[in-house]
Amino acid sequence: MKVLNFGSLNLDYVYQVESILIPGETQASKDRKTFCGGKGLNQSIALAKAGIPVYHAGMIGEEGDILLETCRDNGVNTEFIRKIQGPSGHTVIQVDKDGQNCILLFGGANRSITREFVDQVLENFEKEDIILLQNEISELDYVIDRAYEKGMTIILNPSPYDKGLEKCDLSKVSLFLVNEIEGYQITGEKEPDKILSRIKEIYPDARVVLTLGGDGSVFQDHTGIYSQGIYKVKAVDTTAAGDTFTGYFISSLIDGLPVEEGLKLAAKASAIAVSRPGATASIPMKEEVLNTIL
């Protein structure tokens, strides 16, 4: 069984601010740093640091060599990453004094994925291989359809949620990883139990992880519902928290851990990640997660 993450690769320009800007406001930034990120890249590195061999497929722009190097340095297979003319995907991120953030995303090379490229990549994967997806690349609906035809297990983090997802046949997804906002956008429900109930009605064969911020996370499958609280730490930067959780939880499923242990592992890894700056740089190695007492 192989694991493919077909996803974004971004350069993150992170600005430290006193408070998140409001419309019309001008504010001096205390600092600016550049990190490698993107939901796709973050989740690939989380998987790799959790001990799972992972292939990343995607596109970078002319200034994207550092993204390629970051993948390689963290043990992610880059065989299916292509470099094209033009800019890489990037974000402008504000991080306030409490570690909360807001993110402006520019798709760049991530939006240059073609059906031909999808076919070229998926030729190398087979039935029961795992494909992890997010909504930061073009042709997502085609990727889902082709992966499903091949019998791959499809895992989707539908973020950022937009109208493009309406073209996707989400009944083909085996596991959803969503937060409360995405849960509402999919179901029209705001209460966690109602979100889970509605997803079960719409997609009865799918498993779902619903993350609830300070209230932890919930997993639902045909056997029942499992809950996990958070580990309380001082937040420095929450940018890659969800992606760290995603990578570590998927790794627990691949490793055959009970759901309760998987949720605990993912929550702990996420807590470590928010306690330090950056996206990929903040994601802990599995040994650190196992040996850290919180």
Key terms for this structure?
single chain, 294 residues, alpha/beta, nine-stranded mixed sheet, 9 helices
Topology at a glance:
Blueprint lengths: L2 E4 L3 E7 L14 E7 L1 H11 L5 E6 L4 H9 L3 E7 L5 E7 L5 E6 L8 H8 L7 E5 L5 H10 L3 E5 L17 E5 H8 L4 H11 L4 E5 L5 E5 L2 E5 L12 H14 L4 H16 L11 H6 L3
Parallel strand pairs: 1-4, 1-8, 2-6, 4-5, 8-9, 9-10, 10-11
Antiparallel strand pairs: 2-3, 6-7, 11-12, 12-13
Can you put this structure into words, describing what you see?
The chain has helices spanning 39-49, 65-73, 115-122, 140-149, 180-187, 192-202, 241-254, 259-274, 286-291, and strands at residues 3-6, 10-16, 31-37, 55-60, 77-83, 89-95, 101-106, 130-134, 153-157, 175-179, 207-211, 217-221, 224-228. Helix 2 (65-73) links the parallel strand 4 (55-60) and strand 5. It has 294 residues and is α/β, with parallel strands linked by helices. A nine-stranded mixed beta sheet has the order 5-4-1-8-9-10-11-12-13, with helices on both faces. A four-stranded mixed beta sheet has the order 3-2-6-7. The mean pLDDT is 95.
